[in-house]
Amino acid sequence: MVGIEKTRGKKRAMDILINKVPSYAKNIYVHHILNEKEAEEVAKILKKKCPEANILVEEIGPVTGSHLGPYAIGIVYNW
Known about the structure:
Blueprint: H1 10-19, E1 27-32, H2 36-49, E2 54-59, H3 62-68, E3 73-78
Parallel strand pairs: 1-2
Antiparallel strand pairs: 1-3
């Protein structure tokens, strides 16, 4: 596994993560662990960036969640 970019601070990390999603994405999934409020905020930002996309906010399951820890957020998309 190779890291894409290094940064400091959660706000900057979320900005980078959101900017990696192309505007032509068709389906976007915002996954979270015990952090639905922030995941919904990310989904709103993505909806402005990608108005045609179907966006779904889901909680990550316990197996993956146990490796990532509480309050993690991830974005998955396809075009």
